[in-house]
Amino acid sequence: LATSSFPLAMPIKTINEPFLTLTSGAGPTRWSDGCGEIVGSSDDYNIQEYFSSYLKQVDKRAEHMSITIPFYLHYVVEPNEEIPDMIFAVVIQMQTTSKYKIIPDIHVPYLSHKKSCEPADGCQIVEVKFSPIEPVPATFNIRIIYSNAASSSYIMALKPIVIEFHDIFIPLKHSAQCLSKPELDVAFSPEQMFDALWQYIEEHQYSRKNQSFSGAKSIVYLDLEKEKVETILEKLDNHIIKRNDTEASVGVFLPPKHHFLLRFVLHPAHAVVHVATDRWQILASLATFLKYGRTINVENSSSMVV
User: Fold this and answer.
1) What is the pLDDT of residues 293-302, one digit of tens each?
2) Residue pair 85/146 in contact by the 8 Å Cβ criterion
3) Residues 6+ positions from 252 with CB-CB distance below 8 Å
4) What's the DSSP call for residue 183?
5) What are the AP5B1 C-terminal domain coordinates in residue numbering (predicted)?
6) Minimal CA–CA distance to 246: which of 266, 219, 228?
7) Residue 78, Cβ neighbours under 10 Å: how many?
8) 216 - beta bridge partners?
């Protein structure tokens, strides 16, 4: 048969003004288990040896660590002659930074304005699986491809997704649960985990003599009144190990395999935060987060070319 006997594919049209967006808050963030099987015995176990086994397992499973964040996919403009009230065969594509693994395309069979006119119950939810290669904040440019009822195809860039530094925080308490082995009558409290990790970091700090180490300790001075420091601690509530009126200890696991610890010393007009981490490169992002509550300005991010 001659090629001319087949109809030519219709070109994909570009929509310059997006009528959809992705909004976070569609459900709790989930994370994969980075601990694996901890090797240990209940007979005269040594906390540092058992902790060393945990670190080896975390390093081994780092390649598989991920964080899944649910988003609402919904309309931001009322349907009209140009905007259909229902679209089909929706493909969501995300432009991944070099610090994250490639995110596979996400497919949605159809999307209707009636069901997804706002980010609320009943709205279409899509789950995005982020797999950090480095524990850093990032901006992900997004585009979608879809068809209308007449089978015409369109492509449209959406507002970027911003993954802030605190979006990838996993409670250190989760890691402490990994260390606990009820069948061996071995239970590590979050406080023990915090202390063991702090000691490990102190012994593995980066220096000219020990360039193979990546640990570091630092101090962040917060020139903030106690009420504003409390706002920071509220954001870190799931990560607080212990606290009283003058001090607070915070422990965080950073995927794929790192940690940081904070010891807040609270004063009426300021706070001093003692920091320990096994990844010294995150100190700048951590200081920015503590001082300003965020690390990325989405307005400075570029849009995906469509």
Assistant:
1) 776 554 444 3
2) no
3) 169, 170, 171, 172, 236, 239, 259, 260, 261, 262
4) G
5) 192-291
6) 266
7) 10
8) 277
Q: Is 268 left (phi over 0), alpha (psi -120 to 50) or beta?
A: alpha
* Residue type at 67 in one-letter notation: I
In CATH terms, the fold of domain 13-47+62-163 is Immunoglobulin-like (2.60.40)
| One-letter amino acid for residue 299 of the chain | E
For the domain bounded by 189-296, which CATH number is listed?
Answer: 3.30.310
- Rounded Cα–Cα distance for residues 286 and 301 (Å): 20
Contact predicate 289/295, CB 8 Å = yes
The answer for residues whose C-beta is within 8 angstroms of residue 250's C-beta and 6 or more apart is 233, 236, 239, 240, 241, 261, 262, 263, 264
Query: Residue 30 is inside which H or E element, if any?
Result: strand 30-31
In the structure encoding, which two tokens stand for residue 5, read together? 């006997």
**What pLDDT digit, counting tens, does each position of 74-128 carry?**
999 999 999 999 999 999 999 988 999 999 999 999 999 999 999 999 999 999 9
Tokens 């490990």 identify what position? 200
Count of H helices and E strands in the chain? Answer: 5, 15
Cα three-residue angle 139-215-250, rounded to 5 degrees: 70
Question: How many Cα atoms occupy the beta-carbon half-sphere of 38 within 13 Å?
Answer: 30
User: Which of 34, 99, 26 has its CA nearest to residue 69?
Assistant: 26
Contact 10, 152 (CB under 8 A): yes
